[in-house]
Amino acid sequence: MSRPLSQPLSRPALSTVAELLKPITWFPPMWAFACGVVASGVSPLEAWPVVVIGVLLAGPLVCATSQAVNDWFDRHVDAINEPQRPIPSGRMPGRWGLGIAVGWTALSLAVATLLGPWGFGAAVLGLVLAWMYSAPPFRLKANGWWGNLACGLSYESLAWATGAAVMAGGAMPDPRSLGLALLYGLGAHGIMTLNDFKAIQGDRRMGIRSLPVQLGADGAARFACWAMAVPQVVVIGLLLAWDRPLHAAGVAGLLVGQFVLMRWFVARPIKRALPYSGFGVPLYVAGMMVAAFALRSIGGA
User: Fold this and answer.
1) How far is CA 14 from CA 19, 69, 198, 285, in A?
2) Which residues contact 58 (CB under 8 A, 6 or more apart)?
3) Are the CB atoms for 105 and 63 separated by under 8 Å?
């Protein structure tokens, strides 16, 4: 039966749309892009429009798109784990979730054209990974090894490399900058694993093989800590090799703080994953900026 003409179409509130796009998740790629800008050695004031567009693209556009895509294809899992989310709760009716994901993808691509070939190519790659992460037939998130790797490389490595490249006018960033971007992206695998502890029950029921499901809570907690710590140790070694002992000491001090929190986290990982993420991850990303300033101090990268 058709809807009566007098009955308005159901649509989500703007606050529900904002909730779907999850602004709290935008920080990591925005921060990584800023690290790339700093590492480039070019003053942000010299190309501030590029910086503003790049930060908006990394967070409110590409990252927000990934959140909308994920929530649409995860709506059945979320009905078990987090039924209060916009789609399973019914506050995002019909196929609005999918429509927003598609629309935000198109908007991201349109804005990315303003950053030249490198920026546009990076946006395309980031969006492809976002859809592959959540949508069938790829659904990389169905296996924690691949899904978390895709997220880490996209949120951290790709965003850093893009920031460095667009500031250099589209030139290939210095290998040192790309190396640091790759290391911090690999370490972000552990950060992504932290997010999986809250969904163990639903993931297990829906056949999603997150690392807490595959390794158990204790094994996944230990892996997450190692995954975050080892790349930072390598970064410290590189900074020393580049004759930047003060920056190396800064990253080392932040890592020591993480070690203290890691010991606390692994004792009760399911209960403490969220607070550890809130206190430990900021120390991790602070080290990223320290490393970026180290490159800046040796002439840019």
Assistant:
1) 9, 18, 27, 31
2) 26, 29, 30, 32, 33, 159, 162, 163
3) no
Whether omega for the bond prior to residue 137 falls within 30 degrees of 0, making it cis, is: yes
Each residue's pLDDT tens digit, 115-130: 989 899 999 999 999 9
Q: Is the pLDDT of residue 7 over 60?
A: no
CB-based contact 135:101 (threshold 8 Å): no
- Residues in contact with 230: Cβ distance below 8 Å, sequence separation at least 6, in sequence order: 187
Rounded to 5 degrees, what are φ and ψ at 184?
-70, -30
- The 10s digit of each residue's pLDDT in 203-223 is 888 888 999 999 999 999 999
Q: Are 163 and 199 in contact (CB under 8 A)?
A: no
Task: Judge contact between 37 and 295, C-beta under 8 A.
Answer: no
Residues 6+ apart with CB under 8 A from 131: 69, 105, 138
Q: If you search the block for the tokens 């506050």, which residue do you land on?
A: 91
Q: How many residues does the chain have?
A: 301
What is the chain's alpha carbon radius of gyration, rounded to the nearest angstrom? 20
| SS3 state of residue 143 | strand
Helix, strand, coil shares of the chain, percent, nearest 5, are: 80, 0, 20
14-297 CATH fold: Farnesyl Diphosphate Synthase (1.10.600)
**What integer pLDDT is reported at residue 300 of this predicted model?**
46
What distance in Å separates the CA atoms of residue 157 and residue 101, rounded to the nearest whole number?
Answer: 23
Q: Tell me, what amino acid is at 249?
A: A
**Rounded distance, CA 208 to CA 224, Å?**
18
Q: What's the pLDDT at 299?
A: 63
Total Cβ atoms within 10 A of residue 133: 22
pTM over 0.85: yes
